[in-house]
Amino acid sequence: MAEKRTTPARDCSPLDFNVRRDLLLFIKYAQERQIKRSYRDNQIPQGDRKRLAKLLNAPEPIREIEDEEGYWAEWICDLARRLGLASYATEGIYVGYTSQTESYPDNYISVNNGALKKYLALTSSGKERRILDVLINGNANEFYEASLLGTQHRFDISGSAVGAASRMDLSQVRRRLLAILASYPTGQPVPFEELVERVQREEPNLIIDHERKPEKSPKRQAQSSRLYKPPQESPRPVYECLYEYRYKEKDGNQVKDWTSSREISEKEPDAFFRAEGRYLAYFLEEIPVLMQFVQLEYQDATNPLSLVPDPPNFIKSFTVTEKLGAVLNAGMANVDDVKVTISPDFTILVEALLYPDTVLARLAPYTELKSSHHHTHILELSRKKTVETLTSNPNAIPLTDVLADVAAHSASQVPRNVAADIAEWIGHAEKCVVFEDVSLMEMRDLEPDFAALMLKELDDVVTHIISPRFAMVTSAADAFNRLEALEQVPASILHSNASLHKSLLPSGKKVKRARESKAKTETSLPEATWAESTMAAYTSNNLALLKSIAAPLRAQGVTPVLLDETSGEKGTGLLVVPVAARAKVNGLIRKLRASYDIRFQ
Description:
About 35% of the residues lie in helices and about 15% in strands. A four-stranded antiparallel beta sheet has the order 8-9-11-10. A four-stranded antiparallel beta sheet has the order 12-16-18-17. Strand 10 (about 365-375) and strand 11 (about 375-380) form a beta hairpin. It is elongated, with a radius of gyration of 36 Å. It is of the alpha+beta class and about 600 residues long.
């Protein structure tokens, strides 16, 4: 009896997880981190399993063991592969002559960006149908293969290649059963026995064909003896190779008892219930639950480790959700509609029958997700995320444009107070940018093309390019050494907390005074002080503002560095001061607010 594991009997709510949401989160995780599957068993490594367990929202029955076992992450990963959104090797190789098992060297999960772009361009219902088609056409036979959330033992796979189940058209059976489920009213519990009786009454040959002709063995050649008579052909039993096995306890595990097998016979009055009924129960536990089409209620007395596979009545009832009809009916109106409500308290309510991944993705750079339940998602506009997004990505879609597009789905326009504050947030991102714990690199007298080449060579240490002449680097020493290796002549300028000094030597080297013999004319090299300190940098699109700050600082004993990019009082400038002088800068800014409209990040 082939199965992955047995989980306790429980009610499985279809609302506490979302396949499509976790699929997109997994794809994003795989893009940001290179996942190398294990060498021997081709599984997601334990470190990635733990991180994915926190990122994804696994179904409640396996949530407690997800960070260790990774069942949900593996299922989502396999789904991404079957959808063509990701790829990795599923067949190993034998490494060396003595290898007894397959190995999977350098088996990285790669994202297929072209297929992903096409998938993201689909509507919500289109994405759901893509997933449903993959499950319907590619899943193993429910008679033998235990589902991710299945609770019961399955039939033994022995003889399945020639048995009745081998002649099932699984795609047709699954699509017809989903259509039958969609005919039930939504939100109302339906006894499981009613479904079994309906299938037996209306479509008794849907799952296993009871009207098929008896199979005949190949004709045998006549033997030399005239008395030879070929054996009489007899029809094989309808339920051949559907064996019920007993289980026994051994060393704390459930072990199959090969001496207690029992084949189901069509002569038994409850044969349909024990065979087709089991398939219906196993089917409900897989595609309908994973796709959030039904919610199942289990019998209280169900024993998942029973000595024989429990009859199908281990499921007490099922409740059909609205999502089933919405996904199956491609022409259903308003399936992909999304309603967005922006409140004066900066909260955004997103309501949709199907998961609105496109709208949520557009709002994600500017909002914090507060709650997500079934058809409703509550977000809150974040000033911090908005400024960070616009500052770090100048090409980002402006928040005003995003809200204007989202407002088209809204019952009301963006509140005035929200619009006013958003305009101020955008101003903060445009007016002033503060850099801390970084070093400023200035490229003087360099051709633009050559400066761009230098920035490309220093790409791993450059954190921000202010202009073709200025860039921020994480380590001045690394940048200095790299420039020397490129046969450049860099100059290092270090600043103390109170003043600014210039040196032509890299950090860490000191100038020693030259001493000559008394017989020679005494000459000495100029002495230079050397100190390292943390600096703060300010940028503004108003050069006059920076000059109004630099002049008083010099009068107070602080020597700032003021670098301007363009001529005129309205040019862009960069002001660098020691961290110890930040309090003085803040005091000057407070005084200048009467003369300038200063906005801070």
